[in-house]
Amino acid sequence: MLKVENLRAGYGAINVLWDVSLNFPLGELTAIIGPNGAGKSTLLKAVMGLVPTTQGSVSLDGYPLTDRATWDMASLGLALIPEGRMVFRDMTVEENLTMGAFPKPHRAALGRNLERVFGLFPKLRERRRQLAGSLSGGEAQMLAMGRGLMSEPRVLLIDEPSLGLAPVIVREIFDILRGLKQQGVTIVLVEQNTRMALGLADGVYLMRAGRVILAERAAAVDIDRLHDLYFAREGAAGDVADAVFK
């Protein structure tokens, strides 16, 4: 289990996460939703060591990750697919994927994992010699996901994969996520498309203003109440304390 306990993190003098605690069971897809500025991306970056923490801990199956360097995370079984794709634009598709297998433990399986990624994303096979900067937004998102899978992660952290994509591409991305989940990949999904995230998730956390205000199994979520909490509508405040302790 990936476990976050009482975490505080931020940027310089600006604290973003306030005593955040979450559990991500292995083999499940857990969705983190919330409005802009809720701290969702900061949480993923803190887990990966990209944002300094001032309190709390992160662990994977009891092994502490809090003080490990970001470049160690791939070897420890974590991979982050960042918001905005962030591919190497002047490198080919295949070179981008190869970068995902850069850690020494994963180099021997490069060929096998390339075939796995090309099987999941046939368009990437067609464009393997093409520069990443010439891809469409949907193709670049597929490339970013494929690059993350090249290190055979135990836990895949995905930040806003549907952002800026056409609905047909979003459905394709979510179909791929469903397939990865069925293969047993543990997925932490930050997503603003609430209904699609709930339809795929096993568990869901709602964040607002750097705090977790709801933690439930996805099948038990009342979508109307969730939206009230999401938008901080009048009358929802009384639900917040109850949600934290479920």
Give me the secondary-structure topology.
Layout: E1 2-11, E2 14-24, E3 29-33, H1 40-47, E4 53-60, E5 63-64, H2 73-76, E6 78-81, H3 93-100, H4 104-107, H5 110-120, H6 122-126, H7 137-149, E7 155-159, H8 167-182, E8 186-190, H9 194-200, E9 203-208, E10 211-217, H10 223-230, H11 237-244
Parallel strand pairs: 3-8, 3-9, 6-7, 7-8
Antiparallel strand pairs: 1-2, 1-4, 4-5, 9-10
What would the keywords be for this entry?
246 residues; disordered C terminus; 6-stranded mixed β-sheet; alpha/beta; single chain; globular; 10 strands
**What's the count of strands?**
10
H/I helix tally: 11
Secondary structure: helix percent: 25-40%
Q: Largest sheet, described in full?
A: 6 strands, mixed
Question: Per DSSP, what share of the residues sits in E-state strands of 2 or more residues?
Answer: 25-35%
The helix-and-strand class reads alpha/beta
Computed over alpha carbons, the radius of gyration is: 18 Å
Order of helices and strands: EEEHEEHEHHHHHEHEHEEHH
Give the integer mean of the pLDDT values: 90
Q: How far from one another are the termini? A: 19 Å
Strands ordered across the widest β-sheet = 6-7-8-3-9-10
Poorly predicted sequence stretches spanning 5 or more consecutive residues: 236-246
> What would you call the shape?
globular
